[in-house]
Amino acid sequence: MANLRNCRTLALTSMVVALYWCATGCSTAGARGGAENLTYEAKRPLLSLHTALRKHAESELDAVLSDLFHSDTGTAAKALVVYIHGRGHEPKKSFESSILGSKNRVIEKIEQQGVLVLGVDWDSAPSFRHPVCDRPIDNALAAGPLFARVVKGLLDHRDAHPDSWRDRKVVLLAHSMGGFVLRDAMENQGAVENIRKLFDIRVISESDVPAEGHARWLPVQPAKTTFVLSNPADRTLAQSMECDAKNKRETGPRLGTLAASSPSPGMPDATYIQLAAGDRHRIFTKGGANGNPYVCGVVHDLLNGNAPQLQPKWLAAGKLNTYAVPLKKEPGNECFKGELADIDSDD
């Protein structure tokens, strides 16, 4: 009987390990042989859907951009979204759905907005022992120089290949803990200038960085081209704040939960937009808009490199640059055409 119990324990342990391994990196295509392993690799931090492999070294940036732009066969150039992801088992989360229930494929869902995506990967997985409360802040900060180099490489490519960039908007999407990556990059004056020059629009989406002190790092030049998206009801950020007592670092209300009614004046050259999207965290996908066409429209405009159409009645009382986009349920709206289901429970 003891041996039987031991065998059952070993089998259960093996099953749990296998499930965790698949949640963090294995690919269903891997069983067929020759598939790419979608675990994090520091030497391959560039992510794209439009290349034979999905992970690439920094030295392959020119080739990745060539394939990206070659996929753009329309008459008008698609915007290029440079995406810094948040916490999670990346880059698997950017490309495939999780067997644990989350419908990820995040880059594919961003491209549903009619854009191209270049992902910037960092070591974002929470620890195995503390999967709920672990915030890999040090890893995010350590990726700041990587992001700065990618921005410089994009500018160099634009200078060398102007035809590929003609009429092409460039958008920064820094999501959740990706805000820490951006914050660290903004400590480099050269990076500050390059970020200003490269991006037509900067979207700071549901940032897990504390709201207090964000004026010290938020990129706000040129004026009125940086947009801070927040959702005070964000369930994922609520969970992050519940862990503050345990983590005791980078604590307090998050920039991504900032309410339009907050007494904080914010940065005058930035635009703050509170979005009514239920308890959603990944609000930049069609599914993340939670059936609200106002949210879907704002996000679509931003990711395509345009200032969003914000109704005057959404302007917060006593503020010139803060809006509260109201609740509206219209899942059949044209903005949701082709929507892929999106569950962000493991962000």
Describe the structure.
The protein has 347 residues and is of the alpha/beta class. The chain is 32% helix and 11% strand. It has twelve helices and nine strands. Strands 2-1-4-3-5-6-7-8-9 form a nine-stranded mixed beta sheet, sandwiched between helices. The protein starts with a helix and ends in a 22-residue tail after the last strand. The model is unreliable at 1-33 (pLDDT under 50).
List keywords for this structure.
347 residues, alpha/beta, 9-stranded mixed sheet, 12 helices, disordered N terminus
Name the helix and strand elements from N-terminus to C-terminus, one letter apiece: HEEHEHHEHHHEHHEEHHEHE
Q: What is the 3D form?
A: globular
**Strand order, largest beta sheet:** 2-1-4-3-5-6-7-8-9
Query: Which percent range describes the beta-strand content?
Result: 5-15%
**Average of pLDDT:** 89
First-residue to last-residue Cα separation: 42 Å
Q: How can the largest sheet be summarized?
A: 9 strands, mixed
Number of strands: 9
Portion of residues in helices? 25-40%
Please state the CA-atom Rg, rounded to the nearest Å.
20 Å
Please, how many helices?
Answer: 12
Structural class: alpha/beta
Short description:
The protein is of the alpha/beta class. It has helices at residues 2-24, 61-70, 92-95, 106-111, 137-142, 144-160, 162-165, 178-185, 189-198, 235-242, 244-247, 293-303, and strands at 46-47, 55-56, 80-84, 116-120, 170-175, 201-205, 226-230, 271-275, 322-325. A nine-stranded mixed beta sheet has the order 2-1-4-3-5-6-7-8-9, sandwiched between helices.
